[in-house]
Structures are given as structure tokens and as C-alpha cells.
């Protein structure tokens, strides 16, 4: 793989979170247009955890992450001699969605827990097992896979322990697949990053959590709790020495406000953005 | 005679060319042999890679758990490594496919071999081959975006991913596979048998069902078995349309992951080398290869038999 | 035979003939139905994607904006991967075919190779993907490159090339071999001067059919990691300074047509689905064109020959 | 040909022509097959004997491009006419082929086949008829203990007798034999010839043979074909002793063929 | 056999035996082929004529399981000995087959091939030799204006003459013909026979024929084979007029074969 870099057009390799993917994809697209093919960028989706595994193995230059790096991952990076900087790029609201035909409009965190906790495995199979006023319909769950930052965050906040979840649901690192699943299954419920809901509003119905609907406003004013969170990119400082990576990250930070809004996330407040830019500059 | 000898010795330059020629022939044959052996090398490489990585897998997971566990959640914190859910997905989609492909393929084969006018046969066969030439990802598109919505209008509770639709489309894809091998087998039944039946006053259908079909049975079963093997190994249709949740279910109206879909799903986010999830796909792959290998060997054995009989 | 007897025969016969005709209709319908379903599905797809098939579609990179997205990197990638596949599978497959048909004697090695080739043809394509992942990507360290994909697909279609080569060679009458030998040709001269030129057409047909299969293969390329956002072209195979040919493209990251389609199929937005339909239509046209060429070539080469 | 008139004709070809596509294989043939007699068709290889024989049960209808002209009467029905279904003809006129071609089924099922295709389901009736046919074909004693065995395990001569039993089972009015012994050894041949001499007591026999000895040995009438034409027809003794055409004579003396 | 001694022998088989695997096809044959004469091999079908002929250019080496015993001398070289490469033998002894088998290439390339396998590159030399060979094969006038045409477009007789030209082009010492006219019509046959009578002025000819007339018409010597053995050999007139074996006589009178 290093061979790929050593020859031909300079390439920036990015992988990781599906939540961050839409922003990074947008930045990559615009960046390559601006550079007119002189630099190239590849962006993959393996979930935050999957991304860090590769990042700390030196296989990628930048890792998308929808949660901060974990201790175990810090260790892995350290032992491989990978140093990095963490740059927040936007705010996200993990959105709980159901099929549009579903009469529900709101759900509480307790109900979510009842639905998703490990103890529910193989037991909670119908909607009315959670709340007797809900329909007597099969419950079909869709959610991010185990490498996902969203999964970690959601399980932590809802089930009380990161990674603690029932496993009998349809898992996918690609949130598009989850959107497809929920939008075409009457008994479905799923959760993923806000951008994916925003782009598919017509096919999905988002649920208010404890009475608060996810939206740019509720995230901004902090009322969408507990499922709103910052999302990041991690940049390898070694890679940052390469001009194409540096150029890309600079371009990223300059444009993330506008592009994150475009794809459906909440831009960082300008002071945080400045902080990120100066953190990047202090690297040089 | 001496003159001749002289001529011969003048030609004795030939001796050297002769040696050159012979060694060149040897070298060429050896190179060709190496090329032919490359296919054996491929098999060895496949088996080596699969077994080597699976050994690492089985160092952490017991074979008993692998073969009898009813949950497959290798990526989760509470990891379970029972292959049965993936197997059930594979078997259900393949069974649905066979329900389509075997009857339709067999009827098509009987029709083409015993009923159709040769001209019609010439026209139809390339069309059937086209069915088999279409990329499977396109079939996946059909299953997910055309057939599933149609099925959902009949069964409103059918989830967007389901094994039924994937199996049906896969069956459609496999029809030409069944029909062409079966037709081959039926057409290699000697004319004498066919005439023997007609001479008894049998109709075409009676001849086809009572004489030709039983006589070609080993070839036809080879077609069926190879078709099953094909369905078991089919990947894109089930990945796109059957769902990604490994669950032990025999209901085609459910969604479920197959062995192949699991491999694709995991490798989509190209998995980090050397991790346990990296090993799982090789263990799953090994299971798949063993299944198809057994089927293929039985299939070839049967096919060979029908070629030997006639 | 008495008249009543004859009468009995006739009524009985009428019943049987009705069943017979019924089956003839059913059989015809089954075939028609299979083909029509396929044609219907294809048309449905083509219609929903046709408005996307514009010159821009072929000249644009994939994009987050569906209406701007195109298949430039995909078809270029497919072309380059197919090039590598052909370069590897054709010599290897044809050479194996020649060995098996013209050289191998009846011994266990020959049997082993034969059985092996038939079995390889039945190995699911995803397994080739695992081979590629384990061998090419990691052991040989080729990375997620055009070279790795080309090699993988080459191995995948090798059995097809071998089998069609053998059939082509078998179709050449032995009398031509004997004629060449009788003039003092060595074995290789016989093969090179005669057998190969005469079977060229049929071998080419087989190669094209093999490649058309490879073009549509998705699974084995996914495992080596081709499903990423690729909005650029591989390096150019030509360069300004000596030696003017560059092999950097072999190591470039890439995407191919079926992967691009798969990517779009898994997107929920209707506009992306239209792109998937458009890409699928182009893909079908590619494989159909190749198959048609193959059928035509087969016909054309056979026409001139009456051994 | 006077003797014929005293015998009832079972089948009669009148001005029969047959074409394989554009190839004119049977030319203007007139032939009377007397009832309950053995009529032999002889002639050099390729003269059209098989082709003519297969007109009598309309086997040619199985392949596209074949064409008949003229008439063949079976009793009073013109079996070449459009109204008559070839399958009906084949139920009335059965056939035994050159190479024994038993179906890959049991001995019993081979013989029963002729009844089953007719829709016969009654087990006892089938049992009875199978036994009777096997007896008529002189095979019963050899196979009665292994009716469930595969027919393909029989010897060549037994297989051919099985095919004869199969042809007999549904009481055909006439049986066509196309060189039925050419694939058999002399002993098997002898038993089949013997069998045929007995069969003619119930059924009309038309047989193609390339062995003049065979024709001479047991046929009552002989027809000689040459290049698609019927050159000579008469009682076997007459044809063999004083043929009226020089080609017949040449053939019988071994000069052509 | 006295006449032979006066003629120079070109090739000589001594105690030759040949086996197809375990089947003994040529038995203890001794045969002298006189130089610049036409020697015909006759005998009933399956007696081993073709097999014997193909020993003379070691065609049997192409297939596994074949075995020679004994010797064949070409001039003074035993061409069956291990030291001699069969390819070398075939360059000295060329062959014309029963069915014309031109390569699907141009007329010119068909003839030139005999030179090309020998590595000849000089265009002018090849041109010259091709023309000469075509003239010797009496084909030049018919094809000189279309040397680039496909050989398969020629008529059967022309194709066979082309094969003869192909066999002649590299000045072989001997040519083997295996029933070269059996696939041709009488007119083409006549022209090939005429051609062979001329060829013998330059080259030794050994020919298998199943037509006795042909052997009688233009061969100088005739060898009669029977069941793999060589029964009779002598000048053609002698063999035909007063054969010393009864089988030869029977064969010549048409009683066997
Ligand atoms: N299916 C066919 N299509 C075209 N021509 C045919 C076909 N079958 C036979 N013929 C030709 O019809 C002529 C008569 O053939 P037929 O088989 O009836 O001869 P035969 O007298 O039975 O010869 P044999 O004794 O060799 O069986 C022959 O010239 C043969 O080549
Ligand atoms: N490749 C072979 N393998 C085994 N036996 C063979 C082979 N070729 C020929 N024979 C047998 O060898 C014997 C001689 O055959 P050969 O072809 O030399 O006869 P022939 O005299 O040329 O006959 P014909 O006049 O029919 O060509 C025959 O019995 C034949 O069956
Ligand atoms: Mg015949
Ligand atoms: Mg011969
Ligand atoms: O953002 P994730 O893909 O890691 O959930």
C-alpha cells in the first residue's frame, strides 16, 4: 500500500465513520475539482471503529469518526507509532426513525432502552411489548454495526454501556442500507446520523426523543438530548507532512461549515472552528 | 550410396538444428505444462488461503460452536460464532431459487429438446443464454427495486429486504443453467430409444416423460445439483436484496443474511487484516467452498455418467 | 381390428393429444415467460434510467449530487481491469488449453488438471475475492489496485478460456495435424502454424464470453476493497519522458461499473436509483454487445470453413 | 403376381413416393403386403428399404422436411391421409428396430409400456398381457423370475426378443422389422427367425433384411428394391428362382450390393 | 523376384512388425521398394495396407502405444532406429492422404509450407520452388492467377493435386500415397494417375489402393497383403497374371475383400 503512494498522482486515503462520510465526500469532491486532478482522495466507509483500526495500522491518512477515539485505539496508534490530531467538523443528532406509516411520533429513552438492551434479545419482538398502546406488529430493528461510532454512542447513552446491545437486528456500516431497510418495512425502527434522515425525509419518519424532535435548531440550542454529539476527523501527523494531505485538511476546515450544512449537519460555532484551524496550524 | 551419404553429411548441419529443435520443443512443452498447472496452483492457493486463515479462526472458536451455534454475531461485543443462521439464509434463498429454476428450467429443456422446431430452438437458445450473461448486480437491482415492491403490494407486511424476492430472481437467473444442461442430457439420449417409444404409439409428452427423461436422469440431476451449487454461491443478488441480519429462520418472507452476503458485508468496509472478523470471512468462505465442492463433485460425477452411458 | 376397437383408440388418443398439446403450449409459455420477464425487467430499468444516459454521464465522476454524478471513473476502471484480465487470462488459458488438448497424456497429472479445471469453474466468485484478499492484497502486497483486481478476474475466467480453447482445438480435424506432421513439422510448428491460426476465431469467441462475464463480476472486486468514493482517473499509462509508458496505473485505486452500480443501488434516494438504473443499462449493453460480438464471430469464423 | 389375389391384402402402398427434403428416396412404389404372411424387403444398401418400411408406421413424421406422396392402405384406411393421426397408425402397426433398443427400465415395464401409453391402468390386465407377450416372444421362461431386472442386463438376442414382446403386447395388426437380426450372433438370429415364423400365425409381418439367406429361409413373399424403386415382387420361391429383372438376378448372384 | 535385383532399392522393410497397443497389425513384412518406380500395396480392407504405409514415414510415432519391430532402410539408414528423428524421416519421405487435406490457407502458402518448416525464408527461392512444384503437380496453369486464393475453394481433384505439390516441394526422396483417389470422381482420378506416372521419373512412389484396376494401370510393382502379412510381391504384370498364392488369386477375382 505504501507503494501506491510512492508512485503516480498524490493520493489522500480516508476511511471510517459513515456519519462523517457525507461531509468528507463533499469536501473530497470539491477539493478534487479545485485541484483539477492533480491530487486525489479516496473515501471509504467502515464505521468509526473500523476506520481507527486501519488508521492505527498506518493504512489511511485520515479517519472519519463519529465519537472520540477510545483508549484501546489510542494504545494501538501509539504502539504503531501513529500520532494524530483530532479535529471536530460538525454536530450531529442521532435520529431514531420509523416507517412513515407508523402512527408513533415520539419515544422516550426508557422505551428505546427496553427495545435495544441486550435483555431484549429474542424477547421483545413486537411493538406492543414495549408499550401496550402501540400496534400489535412485528418489530424490525435496523442499526449501525459494531464498528460504528454511532452504535457506541447510542448504546452508551441509551443502554448505559457502550457496545451493550441486542444483536438480533439488521446491522450495517453503510447507513444508506439502514435507510432503505426502514423505509421499506412497515414494522421497522432504526437509528443513524441526522444527514441520512435529512436526505430521505420523504421515506422516513423521525421520532421525537423525550418529546424533542431532532433538527438543526434543537441541536444548536442543546435541547435534543441525549443523542446529539460532535463528529470528527483524525489526521495522522506523519501524513500531514505530505503536501496533498495538508492541502486537503486545510480545505476541509475552511469549507466544513458550509458543506456540513449542505449535507444535513449542524456547523460548529465559529470559535470552535477557529480553534480547530489554529490547532492544525500549530502542527507546522 | 556414398554420394547420398555425402549429401547426408552435408545435411549434418541439420544435426544441430535438430538438437535445437528438440530442446525448443521440450522447453515449450514445459512452459505449456506450467500454464496448465497454474489452474491447480489456483486451487491450492484458494485452499491454502482459506484453511490458513480459518485455522486462526478455529484457534479462537471451537468447531463445535461454529457448527452448532444458533447465533452469528462476530462483530458485536458479545460475539457468537454459530454458522447456522448464515446457513439457513443460504439454504432458504437457494431453495426458493430451486422452486423456480427446476420446474421452469426442466419444462423449458423438455420443450426445447422434444417439442420445439429446430428453428425455434436456434432462436430461443441464445436468448436463454443472455439470461445467464446479465451481471448479477443487475439482478440484485431487479430483486430489490422491482420484484420486492411488487411482492409488497401482495404481502404488505413483507420487509424491504427479504429472501423470497432474492430467491425468485436468483431462480430466474438459474433457469438457463438448468435448461441447457438438462437439454444437453436429453438430447444425448439415443434416437433409437425415442423411436422405440414413438413406434409404440406414444405421444411426444409420453416419450419425453417416460423414456427420455428417465434415460437422461443422471444428466438432469447433474444440472439440478450444479444449479444448487450455483445458488449457494451466488452473492450479489442476496447481498442487495435478501437482507443483512444473520438469523436462524426458515421463512422466506423474512430477511436474513447468507454466507456470501456476510462476506461481502464485512469486506465492504474492507476489514483490517489479521483481526478476528477478518478470519470469520475465511471460515465462512471455507464452509461455502466445501459445500459447493461437494455439490460440484457429485454433479460432475453424474454428468460424466450420462456421457458414459451413451 | 374392429371398428369399435378403433373408436376406442381414437377417443383415448384424443385425450392424450390434448395433454400433449397443452404441454407444448405450457413449454412455450415458460420460455416466453422467462425471456419476457427478463426483457420486462431490463426495459423497466432502462426506462427509469434512460434520462440519465447523456454524454455527461460518461464524462463525470461520481458525486454526492445525483444529477451531477457519472460513471467516468467506473468505465475507465473497468476498461483497465479488463485489459489486465485479458493480458493474463488469455495466454495462460490458451496455453493450458493447448497443453491439455495436444500434449497431455492419459496419466494422473492430466486427470488432476482436468478435474481441477471443471471444479474451478464451479467455485463461487466470492471465493476468488477471498483469494484475492488473502493472496494479492496482503501476501503479495499489491494493495487494492487495478493489478490485484485484474489478476483476480483473470483467475476467475481462466476455466472458461481453457474450456473454450480445448473445444476449439478439438474441432480441428486430425487430418490437418497429420498433414503438417507429414511435411516434417515439429509438434510446436504444427500447433503454431496451423492449429492456433485455424482455431483463432473460436478461441477469441471464448475469450470475449469470458471477459463479458468478468465485466459483470462484483463480489470478488468488493472484497479487495473497490467500494470507495473514487472521483478520479488512474494515472495515465503514457508519460512525457522516456520510456513513455508508465505502469503506475496498475497500482492505482479504482472502481468498476458493477461496483458503481452496487453503490448507487444501495442508496435510498430516487435520483441515485435512477443513476443505478442508468449504470445497469450501460452494463447490460456492454455485456450484451460482447455476447453479440462473440455469437457473430463464431458464426463468421465457422462460415468460411468447410474442412 | 396371381397368387396374391387369393390372399387378403393387409396393407397396400399405391404410387408411393417419399422425399427426405429434396432427396427422392422412394420412387413410385406399389406394394401389397398379404395378411398373416411374412413379406421380405431386400435390395442393395441404400436402395430405400428402411425408408419404405418406415412409411408404413409414419415414423418419418417425426422429422421435419420429410414428405410422402401417394397412399398406403391399412385395410381400408389410407394411413397417409391427413385425417389419420400418425400415432394411431403406430398403435396399429408396431415396429422392431435393427439395434435392440429396450428402454432403460425393468423387463416388465418395457413390455408394459405399450399398454401404459394407451392409458391402461388395470394392473391385473397388464400383468396378464405382459406375460402373454413375453410368451409369444419366447422369452417368458428366461425372464419370468426376474421381471423387475433392468432390461439392459439381458443379452443382445434376449433384448431383441424383448423388443418383439414390447411390439406384440398391444395386439398390433402388423409388425415392421428392420433388419432385426443384423446386430445379433447366429444363435440369437436363429431363435428370432424361428419366432417370426410362429408370429405370422397372428400378425402380418413386413421385414427388411440384407441377408438373402434369411429372406429365402422364412419369408413367404419377397420384394426387391433398387435405387428407390420396387423392381420385383412375388412369392419368395418365384423371386429367388426366376427373377424377372436382370438387376434382381445380379443382386441375388452377388454382383451388385 | 529376380527382376528386383537389377533395380536399385530405395527403401526396404526387413522383418517388420507393427503393433497398435497389443493389436498386431503388420506381421513380419519384408518389402523392397525400388527406386523411381511405382509400387502398389493392395489387399482386402483392414489387411494393414495403410498401417504398413505409415511405417515408412513414422506417422505412427504421433500416437501413444504404437510399436515397431524390425527395420526399414531408406537407402542405408534404418529409419526405425532410435538415433533417427521421425521429423527427419518425414522431411525425406512425404505423404499424400486419402482425403485431400489442404490447410485452410492460400494455395501458395499450402505449397510453401514444406519449405517454411525447414526454416526457408528467402522469398525468391520459395516463389521459384512453389511454381516448380505446382507445375510438377500439373496444377500451375489452373491456379497461377490465383495463388492467394484459399485452397479450400478448389475442387476435390485440384485439392489433391495441391497436396501432391505440397508433398513435392521440398524434393522428397520418396512419396507415400494412401488411396489418393478414393475420394475423387473418375476424371480427377485419371488426371492424378497420369500425374503419378510422370512423377516416378524423379521420385520413388509407394501407393495404397483398393482399386485393382488402378494398381494394374500404372504401378510397376505390386505387393499383396492379407491379414497383416505380405503374401506376394513382384512386378505388377506377374502378380496379376500368375499370382503364387491362392488368396491373391481369390482377391483379384473378387472372391474376398
Ligand atoms: N434422414 C435422411 N435424410 C436424407 N437422406 C436419407 C436419410 N436417411 C436415408 N437417406 C438416404 O436415402 C436413401 C435410402 O436410405 P435407406 O436407409 O432407406 O436405405 P436402405 O436400403 O435401408 O439401406 P441399408 O441396407 O444400408 O440400411 C439412401 O441414399 C440414404 O442415403
Ligand atoms: N489406430 C488404430 N488402433 C488400433 N487398431 C487399428 C488402428 N488403425 C487401424 N487398426 C486396425 O488395424 C488393421 C489394419 O488397418 P488398416 O487401416 O491398415 O487397414 P487397410 O488395409 O488400410 O484397410 P482399408 O482398405 O479399409 O483402409 C485393421 O484391423 C484396423 O482395425
Ligand atoms: Mg436400412
Ligand atoms: Mg487404409
Ligand atoms: O459514524 P459511524 O459509521 O461510525 O456510525
Topology of this structure?
The complex is a heteropentamer, with one copy of chain A (284 residues), one copy of chain B (310 residues), one copy of chain C (307 residues) and two copies of chain D (257 residues).
Chain A: H1 2-6, E1 11-16, H2 21-35, E2 40-43, H3 47-55, E3 62-65, H4 71-79, E4 84-93, E5 95-98, E6 106-107, H5 109-116, E7 140-143, H6 149-159, E8 170-171, H7 175-183, E9 188-192, H8 194-198, E10 205-206, E11 208-209, H9 216-220, E12 228-236, H10 237-240, H11 243-263, E13 266-267, H12 270-282
Parallel strand pairs in A: 1-2, 1-3, 6-11, 7-8, 7-9
Antiparallel strand pairs in A: 3-12, 4-12, 4-13, 5-9, 5-10
Helix pairs in contact in A: 2-11, 11-12
Chain B: H1 2-10, H2 15-60, H3 63-68, H4 84-115, H5 118-133, H6 136-154, H7 163-187, H8 191-199, H9 204-215, H10 217-233, H11 236-241, H12 259-268, H13 276-309
Helix pairs in contact in B: 2-13, 4-7, 4-10, 5-7, 6-7, 7-10, 8-9, 10-13, 12-13
Chain C: H1 3-49, H2 55-59, H3 72-103, H4 108-121, H5 125-139, H6 146-170, H7 174-182, H8 187-216, H9 219-223, E1 229-230, H10 257-265, H11 270-303
The complex binds adenosine-5'-triphosphate (2 copies), magnesium ion (MG) (2 copies) and phosphate ion.
The site of one magnesium ion has 3 residues of chain E, from α2.
Protein name (chain B): Phosphate transport system permease protein
GO biological process, one term (chain B): phosphate ion transport
InterPro entries (chain B): MetI-like (IPR000515), MetI-like_sf (IPR035906), Phosphate_PstC (IPR011864)
Descriptive account of the structure:
The complex is a heteropentamer, with 1 copy of chain A (284 residues), 1 copy of chain B (310 residues), 1 copy of chain C (307 residues) and 2 copies of chain D (257 residues). With 284 residues, chain A is of the alpha/beta class. Chain A is built from 12 helices and 13 strands. Chain B is an all-alpha fold and 310 residues long. In chain B, helix 4 crosses helix 10. Residues 1-14 of chain B have low confidence and may be disordered. Chain C has 307 residues and is mainly alpha-helical. Chain C is flat and about 95 Å long. The model of chain C has no long low-confidence stretch (mean pLDDT 87). Chain D has a single domain, classed as Rossmann fold. Chain D is 37% helix and 26% strand. Chain D has helices at 2-6, 49-55, 86-92, 107-116, 123-136, 140-143, 156-168, 186-199, 212-218, 236-241, 246-252; strands at 9-20, 23-34, 38-42, 66-74, 77-78, 93-96, 174-178, 204-208, 221-226, 229-235. In chain D, helix 4 crosses helix 5 (123-136), helix 4 packs parallel to helix 7 and helix 5 crosses helix 7. The longest helix of chain D is centred in the middle third of the chain and has 14 residues, at 123-136. Chain D is globular. At the B-C interface, helix 2, helix 4, helix 5, helix 6 and helix 7 of B face helix 1, helix 3, helix 4, helix 5 and helix 6 of C. Strand 2 of chain A pairs antiparallel with strand 1 of chain C. The complex binds adenosine-5'-triphosphate (2 copies), magnesium ion (MG) (2 copies) and phosphate ion. One adenosine-5'-triphosphate (ATP) is lined by residues 20, 23, 25, 43, 45-51, 210 of chain E. Phosphate ion (PO4) is lined by residues 17-19, 47-48, 66, 144, 148-150, 173 of chain A.
Amino acid at each position: 500500500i505504501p507503494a501506491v503512494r510512492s508512485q503516480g498522482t498524490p493520493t489522500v486515503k480516508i476511511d471510517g465513520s459513515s456519519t462523517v462520510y457525507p461531509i468528507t465526500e463533499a469536501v473530497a469532491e470539491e477539493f478534487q475539482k479545485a485541484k483539477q486532478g492533480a491530487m486525489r482522495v479516496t473515501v471509504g466507509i467502515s464505521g468509526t471503529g473500523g476506520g481507527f483500526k486501519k488508521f492505527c495500522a498506518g493504512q489511511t491518512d485520515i479517519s472519519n469518526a463519529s465519537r472520540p477515539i477510545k483508549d484501546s485505539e489510542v494504545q494501538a496508534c501509539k504502539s504503531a507509532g501513529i500520532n494524530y490530531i483530532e479535529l471536530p467538523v460538525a454536530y450531529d443528532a442521532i435520529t431514531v426513525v420509523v416507517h412513515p406509516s407508523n402512527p408513533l411520533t415520539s419515544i422516550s429513552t426508557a422505551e428505546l432502552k427496553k427495545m435495544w438492551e441486550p435483555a431484549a434479545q429474542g424477547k421483545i419482538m413486537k411493538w406492543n411489548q414495549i408499550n401496550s398502546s402501540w400496534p400489535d406488529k412485528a418489530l424490525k430493528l435496523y442499526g449501525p454495526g459494531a464498528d460504528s461510532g454511532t452504535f457506541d454512542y447510542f448504546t452508551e447513552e441509551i443502554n448505559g454501556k457502550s457496545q451493550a446491545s441486542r444483536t438480533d437486528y439488521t446491522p450495517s456500516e453503510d447507513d444508506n442500507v439502514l435507510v432503505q431497510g426502514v423505509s421499506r418495512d412497515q414494522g421497522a425502527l432504526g437509528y443513524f446520523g441526522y444527514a441520512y434522515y435529512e436526505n430521505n425525509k420523504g421515506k422516513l419518519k423521525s421520532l421525537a426523543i423525550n418529546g424533542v424532535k431532532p433538527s438543526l435548531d434543537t441541536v444548536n440550542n442543546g435541547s435534543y438530548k441525549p443523542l446529539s454529539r460532535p463528529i470528527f476527523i483524525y489526521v495522522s501527523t506523519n501524513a500531514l507532512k505530505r503536501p496533498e494531505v495538508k492541502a486537503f485538511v486545510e480545505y476541509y476546515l475552511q469549507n466544513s461549515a458550509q458543506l456540513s450544512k449542505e449535507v444535513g449537519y449542524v456547523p460548529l460555532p465559529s470559535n470552535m472552528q477557529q480553534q480547530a484551524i489554529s490547532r492544525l496550524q500549530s502542527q507546522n | 550410396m556414398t554420394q547420398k551419404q555425402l549429401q547426408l553429411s552435408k545435411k549434418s548441419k541439420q544435426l544441430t538444428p535438430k538438437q535445437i529443435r528438440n530442446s525448443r520443443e521440450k522447453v515449450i512443452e514445459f512452459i505449456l505444462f506450467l500454464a496448465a498447472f497454474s489452474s491447480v496452483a489456483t486451487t491450492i492457493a484458494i485452499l491454502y488461503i482459506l484453511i490458513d486463515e480459518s485455522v486462526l479462526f478455529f484457534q479462537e472458536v471451537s468447531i463445535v460452536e461454529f457448527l452448532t451455534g444458533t447465533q452469528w454475531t462476530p462483530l458485536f461485543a458479545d460475539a457468537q460464532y454459530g454458522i447456522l443462521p448464515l446457513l439457513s439464509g443460504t439454504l432458504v434463498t437457494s431453495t426458493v431459487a430451486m422452486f423456480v429454476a427446476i420446474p421452469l428450467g426442466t419444462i423449458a429443456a423438455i420443450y426445447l429438446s422434444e417439442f420445439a422446431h429446430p428453428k425455434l430452438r436456434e432462436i430461443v437458445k441464445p436468448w436463454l443464454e443472455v439470461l445467464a450473461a446479465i451481471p448479477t448486480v443487475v439482478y440484485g437491482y431487479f430483486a430489490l427495486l422491482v420484484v420486492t415492491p411488487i411482492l409488497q403490494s401482495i404481502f404488505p407486511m413483507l420487509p424491504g429486504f427479504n429472501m423470497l424476492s432474492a430467491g425468485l430472481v436468483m431462480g430466474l437467473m438459474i433457469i438457463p443453467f438448468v435448461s441447457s444442461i438438462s437439454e444437453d442430457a436429453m438430447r444425448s439420449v439415443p434416437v433409437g430409444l425415442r423411436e422405440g417409444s414413438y413406434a409404440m404409439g406414444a405421444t411426444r409428452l409420453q416419450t419425453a416423460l417416460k423414456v427420455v427423461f428417465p434415460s437422461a436422469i443422471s444428466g438432469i440431476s447433474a444440472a439440478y445439483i450444479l444449479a444448487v451449487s450455483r445458488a449457494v454461491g451466488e452473492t450479489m443478488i442476496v447481498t442487495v436484496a435478501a437482507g443483512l441480519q444473520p438469523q436462524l429462520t426458515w421463512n422466506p418472507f423474512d430477511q436474513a443474511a447468507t454466507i456470501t452476503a456476510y462476506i461481502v458485508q464485512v469486506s465492504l468496509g474492507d476489514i483490517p487484516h489479521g483481526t478476528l472478523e477478518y478470519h470469520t470471512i475465511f471460515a465462512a468462505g471455507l464452509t461455502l467452498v466445501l459445500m459447493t465442492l461437494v455439490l460440484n463433485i457429485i454433479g460432475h460425477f453424474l454428468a460424466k455418467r450420462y456421457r458414459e452411458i451413451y | 381390428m374392429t371398428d369399435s376397437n378403433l373408436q376406442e383408440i381414437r377417443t383415448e388418443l384424443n385425450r392424450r393429444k390434448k395433454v400433449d398439446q397443452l404441454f407444448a403450449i405450457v413449454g412455450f409459455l415458460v420460455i416466453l415467460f422467462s425471456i419476457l420477464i427478463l426483457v420486462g425487467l431490463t426495459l423497466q430499468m432502462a426506462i427509469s434510467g434512460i434520462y440519465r444516459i447523456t454524454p455527461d454521464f460518461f464524462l463525470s465522476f461520481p458525486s454526492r449530487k445525483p444529477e451531477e454524478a457519472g460513471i467516468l471513473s467506473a468505465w475507465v476502471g473497468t476498461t483497465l481491469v479488463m485489459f489486465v484480465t485479458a493480458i493474463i487470462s488469455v495466454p495462460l488459458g490458451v496455453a493450458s488449453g493447448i497443453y491439455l488438448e495436444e500434449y497431455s497424456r492419459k496419466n494422473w497429472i492430466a486427470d488432476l488438471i482436468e478435474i481441477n479445471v471443471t471444479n474451478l469453474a464451479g467455485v463461487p466468485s466470492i471465493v476468488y475475492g477471498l483469494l484475492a484478499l488473502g493472496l494479492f492484497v496482503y501476501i503479495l502486497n499489491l494493495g487494492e489496485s487495478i493489478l490485484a483486481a485484474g489478476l483476480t478476474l483473470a483467475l476467475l475466467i481462466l476455466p472458461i478460456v481453457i474450456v473454450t480453447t480445448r473445444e476449439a482445438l478439438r474441432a480441428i480435424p486430425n487430418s490437418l495435424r497429420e498433414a503438417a506432421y507429414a511435411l516434417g513439422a515439429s509438434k510446436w510448428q504444427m500447433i503454431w502454424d496451423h492449429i492456433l491460426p485455424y482455431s483463432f476465431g473460436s478461441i477469441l469467441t471464448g475469450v470475449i464470453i469470458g471477459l463479458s462475464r468478468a465485466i459483470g463480476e462484483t463480489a470478488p472486486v468488493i472484497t479487495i476493497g473497490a467500494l470507495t468514493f473514487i472521483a478520479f482517473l488512474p494515472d495515465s499509462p503514457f508519460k512525457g519522458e522516456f520510456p513513455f509508458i508508465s505502469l503506475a496505473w496498475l497500482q492505482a485505486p479504482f472502481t468498476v461499473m458493477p461496483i458503481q452500480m452496487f453503490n448507487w443501488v444501495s442508496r435510498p434516494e430516487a435520483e441515485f436509483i435512477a443513476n443505478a438504473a442508468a449504470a445497469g443499462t450501460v452494463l447490460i449493453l456492454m455485456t450484451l454487445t460482447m455476447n453479440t460480438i462473440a455469437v457473430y464471430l463464431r458464426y463468421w469464423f465457422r462460415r468460411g470453413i468447410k474442412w | 403376381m396371381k397368387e396374391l389375389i387369393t390372399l387378403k391384402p393387409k396393407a397396400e402402398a399405391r404410387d408411393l413416393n417419399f422425399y427426405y427434403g429434396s432427396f427422392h428416396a422412394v420412387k413410385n412404389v406399389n406394394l401389397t403386403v398379404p395378411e398373416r404372411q411374412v413379406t421380405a424387403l431386400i435390395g442393395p444398401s441404400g436402395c430405400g428399404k428402411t425408408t419404405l418400411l418406415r412409411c408404413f408406421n409414419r415414423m418419418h413424421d417425426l422429422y421435419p422436411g420429410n414428405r410422402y406422396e401417394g397412399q398406403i392402405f391399412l385395410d381400408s384406411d389410407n394411413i397417409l391421409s391427413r385425417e389419420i393421426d400418425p400415432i394411431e397408425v403406430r398403435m396399429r402397426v408396431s415396429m422392431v428396430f435393427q439395434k435392440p433398443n429396450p428402454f432403460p427400465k425393468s423387463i416388465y415395464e418395457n413390455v408394459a409400456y405399450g399398454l401404459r401409453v394407451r392409458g391402461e391402468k388395470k394392473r391385473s390386465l397388464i400383468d396378464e398381457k405382459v406375460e402373454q407377450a413375453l410368451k409369444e416372444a419366447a422369452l417368458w421362461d428366461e425372464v419370468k423370475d426376474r421381471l423387475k431386472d433392468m432390461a439392459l442386463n439381458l443379452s443382445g438376442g434376449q433384448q431383441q426378443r424383448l423388443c418383439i414382446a414390447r411390439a406384440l403386447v398391444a395386439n398390433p395388426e402388423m409388425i415392421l422389422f428392420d433388419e432385426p437380426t443384423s446386430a445379433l450372433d447366429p444363435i440369437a438370429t436363429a431363435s428370432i427367425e424361428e419366432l417370426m415364423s410362429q408370429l405370422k400365425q397372428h400378425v402380418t409381418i413386413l421385414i427388411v433384411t440384407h441377408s438373402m439367406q434369411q429372406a429365402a429361409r422364412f419369408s413367404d413373399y419377397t420384394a426387391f428394391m433398387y435405387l428407390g424403386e420396387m423392381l420385383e415382387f412375388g412369392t419368395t420361391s418365384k423371386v429367388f428362382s426366376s427373377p424377372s429383372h436382370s438387376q434382381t438376378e445380379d443382386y441375388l448372384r452377388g454382383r451388385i450390393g
